[in-house]
């Protein structure tokens, strides 16, 4: 897969704080790439560095496989902080101002970006009448001026209600379908799991892992089983083997298997042959959330 951005050994300190510690990652072209981590893990610092807003102490990055030439910046749209729109002006007039100041795109581009974020019908409504979700989508419209190949969004669903979050998710999906590479920083893991193809997980400035979502986060399956006699069931499962981890969780047993190897029918049959009737047999794919907490816990 073609690489759109490579980050090589980037470190950044703010006085005594290490915001980024030797971070390296590769972002494939066309991916929806989530930079995940709790607050203070260095996501915004990383985004600022790759946008040339902030200077790294050491390390390099490379967009589009070229050296960082000025004209490449035009291919990158970004939304790091909520822009200051004028409350008393309409959506389209706000965009006109952004367009004029940034020099990105053209007047002809305005309707196009408004349509992309599903605000064309509301283009003449005052910004002050917009919901939070609509305001955020207008901010994304502004970032889309000039038809960038890459879009960087820092915490795009922050403060939104579930409907607003779903709208942003749909928007990211449609941008990705148009071939735009989308890079999202977020601490909202559950949401990101639903729309990212790739993830990098940061903890206190250290990159814990990165790669395709299904490799990084869903490399295990968890099967939950229970029976009246839990001790007997446990012995039986230990005898059966084939798992990577087995533990008691309250009144059930959780068994971890490498992805694709959990066979519920075989487990049921094995226990049945040993005279055990299962009360519960359930395959629960490991959620991003639980994996994330496992990775970021001290
Ligand atoms: P995130 O976006 O993941 O919440 P940040 O990149 O904003 O993380 O911050 C990473 C670390 O750097 C945090 O400990 C934060 O307090 C610190 N930090 C960020 N910006 C500054 C700054 N301008 N001056 C000093 N420390 C900062
Ligand atoms: Mg941040």
Q: Could you explain the architecture of this structure?
A:
By secondary structure, the chain is α/β, with parallel strands linked by helices. It has two domains: 214 residues, 3-Layer(aba) Sandwich (Rossmann fold), CATH 3.40.50.300; 78 residues, Alpha-Beta Plaits (2-Layer Sandwich), CATH 3.30.70. 33% of the residues lie in helices and 30% in strands. The chain contains ten helices and 13 strands. The strands form three sheets. A six-stranded mixed β-sheet has the order 5-6-7-3-8-9, sandwiched between helices. A four-stranded antiparallel β-sheet has the order 11-12-10-13, covered by helices on one side. It has a three-stranded antiparallel β-sheet with strand order 2-1-4, with helices on one face. Strand 1 and strand 2 form a beta hairpin. Helix 4 packs parallel to helix 5. The longest helix has 16 residues. The chain is elongated. The two termini are 34 Å apart. The mean pLDDT is 90. The site of adenosine-5'-diphosphate has 11 residues, from strand 2 and helix 1.
Return the average pLDDT rounded to an integer.
90
Largest beta sheet: what is the strand line-up?
A: 5-6-7-3-8-9
CATH superfamily of the largest domain: P-loop containing nucleotide triphosphate hydrolases
- The topology string of helices and strands comes to EEEHEEHHHEHEHEEHEHEEHEH
Radius of gyration: 24 Å
Shape: elongated
Strand composition percent: 25-35%
Kindly report how far apart the N and C termini lie. 34 Å
Give the key terms.
six-stranded mixed beta sheet, Alpha-Beta Plaits, binds adenosine-5'-diphosphate, alpha/beta, Rossmann fold, elongated, binds magnesium ion
């Amino acid at each position: 897969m073609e690489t759109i951005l490579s980050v090589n050994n980037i470190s950044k300190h703010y006085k005594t704080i290490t915001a980024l510690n030797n971070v390296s990652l590769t972002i494939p072209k066309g991916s929806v790439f989530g930079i995940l981590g709790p607050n203070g893990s260095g996501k915004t610092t990383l985004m600022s560095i790759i946008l040339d807003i902030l200077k790294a102490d050491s390390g390099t990055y490379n967009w589009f496989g070229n050296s960082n030439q000025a004209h490449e910046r035009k291919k990158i749209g970004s939304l790091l902080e909520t822009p200051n729109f004028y409350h008393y002006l309409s959506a389209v007039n706000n965009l006109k101002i952004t367009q004029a100041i940034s020099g990105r795109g053209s007047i002809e581009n305005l309707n196009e970006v408004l349509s992309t974020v599903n605000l064309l019908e509301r283009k003449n409504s005052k910004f002050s009448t917009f919901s939070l979700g609509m305001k955020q989508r207008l901010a994304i419209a502004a970032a889309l001026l000039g038809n960038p190949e890459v879009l960087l969004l820092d915490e795009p669903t922050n403060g939104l209600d579930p409907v607003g979050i779903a709208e942003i998710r749909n928007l990211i999906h449609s941008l990705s379908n148009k071939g735009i590479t989308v890079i999202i920083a977020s601490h909202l893991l559950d949401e990101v799991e639903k729309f990212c193809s790739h993830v990098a997980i940061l903890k206190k400035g250290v990159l814990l892992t990165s790669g395709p979502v299904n490799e990084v986060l869903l490399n295990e399956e968890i099967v939950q089983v229970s029976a009246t006699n839990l001790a007997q069931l446990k012995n039986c499962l230990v005898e059966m083997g084939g798992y990577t981890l087995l533990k008691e969780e309250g009144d059930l047993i959780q068994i971890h298997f490498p992805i694709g190897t959990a066979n519920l029918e075989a487990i049921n049959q094995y226990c049945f042959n040993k005279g055990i009737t299962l009360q519960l047999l359930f395959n629960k794919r490991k959620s991003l959330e639980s994996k994330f907490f496992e990775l970021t816990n001290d």
